[in-house]
Every structure is written in C-alpha cells, then in structure tokens.
Design brief:
four-stranded antiparallel beta sheet, about 45% strand, 29 strands, mainly beta
C-alpha cells in the first residue's frame, strides 16, 4: 500500500472540498406568484410550504414541481413572515404586525384557525421555532424594553406569553429582523437561542447574553439569522440590508457557545438573511444578491448562485435544500 505524506493528503482533501463546492448550484423551480416569501418549512424532500405577502401560502408535495396556492381568507393584506409545517396537511403561519396573528391549518390550507391574536400596537412578531410537533416558541420585537416571547406545548393550538420579568432586556435601538424566520433556533432539546440587530447585536441563550461582533450601529444592520450545528458550534449572518453587496462583518462563527467569535477567511458575498447547517461541515447562506456554500464550517464561502433569496432550509427528514424569496422565487439546490 502506497503511503502519502501528510502534506499531500491535506492538499488532496482541500482540492476535494473545492470540487464538492463547485458541484453545487441553485435552480429556480417556481415563479408562479409575485408574493415575497420569507417563510419556508421543508418537511421532507418532497413536501414544502412557503408563506409571505398578500396572505399567501403555498404547498408542494412533489418537490416543487406543482403547487397549491392559498390566499388566507380575511388576511389578504397580512405578511406571513414565518411558517412551520409538520406534514402535508398541518402547518402554522405567523403574521407579523399589529394586530399580530398566528394561524393553524390541519387540512392542507383549506381552513385556518386563529390560535393567537395580540392587538397591542407595539406588537411585531419576528420568527417561530419548534422543538417537535408539540413544543414551540415565538419571538417578537421589544415591548417596554423586553423582547416578546410566547410558548406553546400543544402543537400551536394555544400560546402563553412569558411573564415580563423572565423576558430578556433589549438595549435602546435593539430588535430582531423578521427576514427569514431564523433568528431563533432550537439549541438542544430544552433550550433555544436567538439573535438581535439594530444599534446593537447580541446572542441570547436563556439568561446569558453575548455581544456579537457583526456589523451593527444602524437600524438596518446586525444579525439576521443563526444556524446551529450543536450546543457549541453556531454561525450568525447579517450585515446591512440596504447595502446588499457589502460583505464587511456579515458573518461570525462560534465554536464555544458564544464565549468567543471568529470571522471567516472568505466571507459570504454580501448581506445575508439566512444561514443553515446542512450536515457534517457543510453550510448554506442566502441573501438579496445570491447564495453562498461552505464545506469547512463557514471558514470559506463560495458564491453558487446570484439569484436573491430571503430564506433557505434543509428538509427536516431528508437531504433536499430549498430557497424562497421575492417575486415569488423558489429555488432548490442541485448538483451540477
């Protein structure tokens, strides 16, 4: 058996990583509607749901080849910024602004039930996350200087607001971005992590708050999305959504649960609104000017598509990766 020097093996592995990156591309699979989508939930390789402006919800059960389009009755002007789907019939959607609504369907979108309503003029919901089909959480912008948080333990049928004294305090000018439904994620079986932006940017895990060294200082800057590999390894992306091509301080990485952060050697190529862990050392991120792919834990990113998307998600049960964005654009990552 021929033995290769360690340096040669390292070079071969690096070349192989680049080949894997080059093999990925994003194909547009739908532009049937002009709604802007920021909500995306991928149940399995074939079943996915999207939600967005104009009260629009879409569902496909054949991998995006065909779609069922729904305008939720009575919510024709609502922007549903996030969606959580459990199967081909059951999904929960989140309407952001006052009055804030959460609705649920159990019959593939034919009928919707209001499961949460809040008419407080300060309400602005940002994202939902579920640990399983029963336990979920929703986060909103600060009300009286504390972030809004509510929980459900019965599949979204009922929601209870966390008492004010248990909700994290926000700095002046600090809020969350409802850009992709991914500024809050499950960290483990019990805990969630959420990130903020604006004049200051932090990562919150229960009572712990970590300053995130990402672009911040203006209302349009800060952390937009957090991707979670495990309790320790997380990637946060963002930037300034008014300068879509700027890559300065748009991505940070922690491998110790927020105690310290590093920046990539090659950053994503612009403002990024979503990041997703795909397994092993592979990550995907998207924004207004395209999609970046990393095979080395976010240290280097390669542009694999220049169509803009707001959100990217991997199938909960499967390997397919889908995207959704403005102008009704829905995409799928494929091997070239």
């Amino acid at each position: 058996m021929k033995i290769f020097p360690a340096l040669t093996i390292a070079i071969l592995l690096n070349c192989f990583a680049h080949l894997c990156t080059d093999a990925q591309t994003v194909r547009v699979i739908n532009t049937e509607t002009k709604a802007s989508f920021r909500g995306l939930s991928v149940v399995n390789d074939q079943t996915l749901w999207v939600s967005g402006t104009g009260g629009t919800v879409g569902r496909s059960i054949d991998g995006g080849t065909s779609w069922k389009w729904i305008t939720v009755k009575g919510f024709e002007k609502t922007d549903f910024r996030d969606i959580e789907a459990f199967d081909d019939k059951t999904a929960i959607i989140m309407g952001i602004a006052s009055p804030a609504y959460i609705l649920k369907t159990t019959d593939a979108g034919d009928n919707w039930k209001i499961v949460y309503e809040n008419k407080d003029s300060s309400m602005f919901l940002d994202a939902m996350e579920f640990w399983n089909e029963q336990s979920g959480i929703v986060i909103g912008d600060p009300i009286q200087h504390r972030f809004f948080i509510a929980r459900t333990f019965d599949g979204g049928d009922h929601w209870q607001m966390i008492p004010e004294n248990y909700r994290p305090v926000a700095d002046s000018g600090e809020a969350c971005f409802a850009s992709s439904g991914t500024n809050i994620r499950k960290l483990n079986k019990k805990e969630a992590v959420f990130i903020t932006g604006g004049l200051s940017s932090h990562m919150h895990i229960r009572n712990d708050r970590f300053l995130v060294p990402i672009l911040q200082g203006k209302e349009s800057t800060g952390a937009n999305s957090v991707g979670v590999k495990n309790n320790h390894t997380l990637i946060i992306v963002g930037g300034d959504f008014t300068t879509k091509d700027a890559s300065l301080n748009n991505c940070v990485i922690t491998t110790n649960g927020g105690k310290s952060f590093t920046t990539p050697q090659t950053a994503p190529h612009g403002y990024r609104s979503c990041v997703e862990w795909l397994g092993k050392t592979n990550w995907i991120s998207c924004g207004l000017n395209g999609v970046d792919f990393s095979t080395d834990e976010g240290n280097t990113w390669k542009w694999i598509g220049k169509d803009g998307y707001h959100v990217c998600r991997k199938a909960k049960k499967g390997k397919a990766v889908y995207f959704a964005g403005g102008g009704g654009r829905i995409g799928k990552m494929e091997a070239e």
